[in-house]
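Posting this for the archive.
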Amino acid sequence: MNERCGWCGTEAIYVDYHDTEWGVPERDARALWEKLILDGFQAGLSWITILKKRDNFRVAFEGFDPALIAGWGEDEVARLLADPGIVRSRAKIEATIGNARAYLDIAGREGFDSFLWRYVDGQPVQNRFRTLAEVPASTPLSDQISKDLKKAGFRFAGPTIVYAFMQAVGMVNDHLVTCPAHGRVALLG
């Protein structure tokens, strides 16, 4: 009953992320947007790659301020493509700029945090998986959120990315029941 979720391995940065961030309900709209963007950058890569570059991303994307990023153009894209501290993908960088515009539209209508958390009625789904094999890569709910995000103009927000995001920001508690974090995170809902 004291074994961490096996996906986090033993590397200190990953263990700390597992123990202090992953699955903890996040309600701050800007922090939610940042995490969704970083999950999009993860596509085709491992999360630890992004985690190790997260501070560089925060500097390169000027604190992930959607209002600022929404106005960026080719000069900023070129600057980011030359930055070795981040994942240099033109498609992902350009998607981030478009996603900032989509974020601002949703935020102006209802708040990005409200938009996301309404899918789970404001409370994290408490899963009770015993093994990593039981944890899905996507669900009908992540499929629906993905469709709605894409309809709003988001890119790099497919069902698998959205489910990883939902896990990370605590919309679902997918810590294994054998992990000490499961019960701790369940109390935070």
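The CA atoms of residues 75 and 81 lie 10 Å apart. The two ends are 21 Å apart (CA to CA).
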